[in-house]
Structures are given as structure tokens and as C-alpha cells.
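Table S2 (text version). Query chain:
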Amino acid sequence: MQRLKATLCMVAAKFSVAAFTISYKLAANDGMNMKVLITYRYLFASILILPLALFLER
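Corresponding C-alpha cell output:
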């Protein structure tokens, strides 16, 4: 069961990376400013990692 959880987490991570890459390319091709796009990317990553860091470090 533990191996299945790890595998599902890896698959979910890969799908989320793929979805973000596709949306990143679509926004870049649409003419969005690259500095703004990079800022959004780091902001989104920080919002996702912050709860993990807070809960796992306790």
C-alpha cells in the first residue's frame, strides 16, 4: 500500500508539472511578459510549498 501511495504521488506530480508547462507555453506564446510569468511561477510554487514546510517541520 505504501508503494502505491508513492507511485500515485509521483504520477500526480508529473501531471501537475506537465499541466503547468503547457499553460506556461500558452501564456508565453500569447504575449505575456516573461518577467511577470516567472514571478507568477515562483509565487505559485511558494504557495504550494509553504503549507508542506509548516506542517512537516513541526
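Notes on Table S2: Residues 2-29 form the longest helix (28 residues). Residues 2-56 form one domain.
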